[in-house]
Amino acid sequence: MSNNTAIVEISQTAGQFRSSIVLQADHKYIDVKSILGLFTTLVNSHQYELHVHGPDEEEAKKAMTAIFEKHGLQVTVV
């Protein structure tokens, strides 16, 4: 599974939700719906935190956790 596939799937999954979904990697905050932001972030970091806020945040947290795990990426939802 290539990193590009992971980035596209993460972004597409995030795009299904109205909630704000922000990935914290090191000291950067990236809008997960931004493919370009993910390209520059997922390559360089290994510890990720997801910040999810909005009307459908519970569903978004579950979906995002599942897609990160599918691609072997370590993520903590905070």
Automatic annotation (TrEMBL):
InterPro entries registered for this protein in UniProt: HPr-like, HPr-like_sf
Keywords attached to this entry: Sugar transport, Transport
Pfam families documented for this protein: PTS-HPr
Name used for this protein in its record: PTS sugar transporter
Lineage of origin: Bacteria, Bacillati, Bacillota, Bacilli, Bacillales
The UniProt record lists the keyword Transport: yes
Residues covered by the HPr domain: 9-69
Transmembrane segments: none
